Amino acid sequence: MTEEISQVLEDAKKRTNRNRVWRNLGVLVGVTLIVLVVGRYFRTDHTAITYTTDAVTRGDLTVTITATGSLRPVNQVEVGTEVSGTIESVNADFNDRITAGQILAELDTDQLEAGFRQSSAALALAEARVVEAQATLTETSNRLRRVQDLIAKKLSSQEELDRATAAAARAEAGLAVAQAEVAQAQARQDSDRRALEKAIIRSPIDGIVLERRVEPGQTVAAALQTPVLFRLAEDLGHMELHIDVDEADVGLVAIGQPAVFSVDAYPDRTFPAKIEEVRFAPEVVAGVVTYKTILAVDNESLLLRPGMTATAEITVTRLQDVVLVPNTALRFKPPAATEEEESSGGGGGLVGMFLRPPTSTTKPVTRPDADGGSQVWLLEDSRPKAVTVQTGPTDGIVTQIIDGDLAPGTPVVVDAVRTGSQ
Questions:
Q1: Closest CA to 48 of 399, 420, 401
Q2: Is residue 7 part of a domain?
Q3: Cβ(327)–Cβ(409) below 8 Å
Q4: Is 40 inside any structural domain?
């Protein structure tokens, strides 16, 4: 009897524990559902999207491209020496203005003058040999005629005639050799005279001395290559700006286009220029392809100097009184539609109802009907509506609208920001 009572009490205790577990589990499920409902309530209808707009305008559009380069003289000449020797005097210095034919420097000419005198003496000797050979030819020619007369009278032998003929031929050849030696000696003398003249280094152009690389007493050797002594610029009043135009922009530049440029020496000033040449030969540096473009520069004030680094802006397009839209409007993309978010949420039933994303107050966007072209977005009943437009040139800030239903003053969407509780 006692055992039966104990068994009944133990079974009652187990049932009580099971009931407590189920009751606790029911409470946990209820609390979870309450949390989900409250969270859904606070997330529902409390988020919105605020759109920022900017107006379409009408005005002028100037499109430019930027490139860097350096200033150079229109005509630059490096003056050297073709003869070796010691610099005896230097007659020009940095920044000196010079004229064509002006003496820049002189070499010691003692050895060159000795060489010229020697070649002159050789020429005189060769000319004397010509006179001697001419006399010999006259003598042998006269002898040949006398022998021929004697042969005609049968008073001389054939052998004598042969000797006279050979002597006359040798004399004629000797005269030709002597005359060739005169020409050779004359050429040597001309070379020595030219070398003597080149010992005086003269300017080939009117201009200014940019650089002097020689000092009096310095020895120069022209055996392997001509040493450069001076660097001259013909006219610094007119210069050239050599810039490197990127391959993506070279199709926009053309001869005659205006440009302005600046240099570090005058940061608050710009200088005018004009394109006068666009070269076809590419230049590749570190895998970047550029094309050398030459701009004509007026430098009458002589503020600009050769070698200055310049940044140029070339005006490639200039439009007046056109419709313009901000580039931010062309880049704008609206947020995804609410219906798309709901379709990607949880499934049906009770769990799906609580796990689906909450409904937003934002209305769905209107997608464009037309294909092709660019898109800008207008606000219609507080929701974005796409408009297809055809665009033209751009300066990086605004773009020309060639075709599209956009009037000046029309607000276009440029940005969207979510606001409210999350």
A1: 420
A2: no
A3: no
A4: no
Do residues 274 and 381 share a domain?
no
- Tens of pLDDT, residue by residue over 61-109, are 999 999 999 999 999 999 999 999 999 999 999 999 999 999 999 999 9
Task: State which of 234, 258, 280 marks the end of a domain.
Answer: 234
Q: Which two tokens stand for residue 40?
A: 């859904």
Q: Are residues 208 and 271 in the same domain?
A: no
* Cα–Cα distance measured from residue 403 to residue 303, given in angstroms and rounded to the nearest whole number: 47
- For the chain, the domain total comes to 4
C-alpha–C-alpha distance, residues 378 and 45, integer Å: 24
CB 243 within 8 A of CB 295: yes
Strand partners, 263: 310
Cα 125 from Cα 119, distance rounded (Å): 10
User: Do 241 and 296 belong to one domain?
Assistant: yes
Tokens 């200055």 belong to 308
* Domain CATH number, residue 279: 2.40.30.170
Closest-CA residue to 253 (of 322, 327, 319, 313): 313
What domain range is 248 assigned to?
A: 65-74+235-319
CATH code at 119?
Answer: 1.10.287
List 58's β-bridge partners, or say none. 323
Give the pLDDT band (50/70/90) at residue 183.
very high
Interatomic CA distance for residues 238 and 272, integer angstroms: 12
Two structure tokens written together for 310: 């310049």
Q: In angstroms, rounded to a whole number, what is the distance separating the alpha carbons of residues 195 and 109? A: 9
- What percentage of the chain exceeds 90 in pLDDT? 66
Q: Judge if 383 and 307 occupy the same domain.
A: no
Length of the chain: 422
Q: How far apart are CA 389 and CA 373, in angstroms?
A: 6
Distance of CA 79 to the CA centre of its chain: 29
Measured in whole angstroms, the distance separating CA 164 from the mean position of its chain's CA atoms is 81
Determine the straight-line distance between the first and last CA of the chain, rounded to whole angstroms: 67
**Residue 364 in contact with residue 338, Cβ under 8 Å?**
yes
Bridge partners of 70, per DSSP, are 242, 309
